[in-house]
Amino acid sequence: SIITAIWFASHAMERFFLDQTATDLTDRITLVRYQIEPHFRPLQADRIDRICKEAGQLSSTRFTVILPDGTVVGDSQENPSHMDNHAGRPEIKAARQYGSGQSIRYSKTLDRRLMYVAVAVTVENELAGVVRAAFAVNALDERMGAIRWRMAGGGALIAILVGLISLLAARKISRPIERLKQGADAFAAGNLTDKLPLPETEELAGLAQAMNQMAARLDRRIASAIQQKNELETVLSSMREGVVAIDSSEAIMSMNPLAAEMFECDRERAKNRSIQEMVRNLALQNFVAKALKAGDSLEDDIAFFRQDEHILNIKSSPIVDSNEKRIGTLLVMTDVTRLRRLEHMRRDFVANVSHEIKTPLTAIKGYVETLYNREVDSSEDHNRFLGIVINHVTRLESIVEDLLALSRIERENFREALNLATVKLGNICQTAIQVCQKNAEAKRIAIDVQCGEDLQATVDATLLEQAIVNLLDNAIKYSEDGSRVEINAEKRDGMTAIHIRDYGCGIAQRNLSRLFERFYRVDKARSRQLGGTGLGLAIVKHIVQAHEGEVTVESRLGEGSTFSIYLP
Ligand code: ADP
Fold first, then answer.
1. What is the DSSP string of 409-454?
2. pTM exceeds 0.85 for this model
3. Which protein residue's CA is at the shortest distance from atom 11 of ligand 1?
């Protein structure tokens, strides 16, 4: 702007000076013209030349008088006769045509830039000649140069000043902006508690304040989001159900630790991966596909194989976003392995009990009906039938007794109801032997006891006695006539161990694991024949468990068995 202004100003000034000079020259010509005019008609060339020389000297201006044909008749400095024809000079041409003319030219003879002003002289309405004045504009150029330098200097000064002011102003604006930018970077990096300093400028101070408020609000929002997330995480982690959220493309959105444990996968790795990739279970995949299509909740039991079979009860419910748009499905899983096993056992148990009771009842009914209809002739048969009925009734009685015993031991708070006392184990063994003595003697089986005199244990004597009786009874039942049974009680590693060993038929390895189940018998017919109920060992197991102990069996087919009770 400054350069343009200077350029325009200097040009305007130069123009002004030149115009001024031209006017001045025209004025001087006018003065000379009046002196020269009378000497054109008739032409007195020497008079004209003299006036030119005198006026030139007085006004330090070069005057030249030219006739219309271009002949010079007077000049302030030269002899006109030596001068060439001036008809072609532009100012002369213009004066002849328009009455006056002007031209600025470089003069080689004088080595200067000159301004020429020419004015036509008319005598009796006829062009008589042209008076020309010349003025060296060098001085003007020099003055103009000086003025230009001064203007440039002023302009430079203004430019420097303006530059400095601009720099200061820019600094004043950009520093706080830079600081705001640093603050915004800090916010972006997550330091939302930092506060931006308020710049002096009103607008920037407003911006900084707005940014501070935004950061504070963001900080509060994030804190509350984190808190909500933590609360949700705590709830999900402490849930006793596995929870998995799956989106519409079957990718896992999130799962709680228990679900990860159930699926045996890594919780973090599972995120955003498809359920098919993370859990290889066809039934579950089908269930998920169905649940995603279904508008309602679904429920199913699905088996998973880890070390052993696990059954998960899975319930699905649709997940919708705030616009009620379906975005996936939520699976809530409960490990129902134990529950299902118990249900299974309960069903089996009911079936077994019914079956066990039905057999003697059918027999009793048959014999009693025969007797009732008097279809029996001899009193011998009569008595035999009654004997059979009594046998079956006794069997029924023992089944009911065993069932009652079992249910009593199984009662939940049975452990607290135990009648614990410190007793000598020897006494318990002896009492148990006495109970089984009759059966043993019938089969000529010797019972050999090895039990330290001082061996004591804190137990419910009646129950432990019943457990030993059951084991002893089995040992006698499943041994050949004339065999031997050994009872050995000892204390080892702070545990009391009672081993009951026989040399009877023994049990095959494959049957050992199920031996303590209710109604489980290796040889059903034989057990029944021997008056067994299939509940004896189940009762033993429950009595020992009530004492927080353990019962084990070691056996070989044809060589005999050893049942051991371990009590803490
Ligand atoms: P049971 O009343 O039929 O004897 P138990 O529960 O006492 O019922 O025993 C279950 C099954 O275990 C028996 O039917 C029998 O086949 C087997 N068993 C138990 N004790 C012995 C043993 N000492 N020797 C061989 N088999 C045994």
1. HHSTTHHHH---EEEEHHHHHHHHHHHHHHHHHHTT-EEEEEE-TT
2. no
3. 521
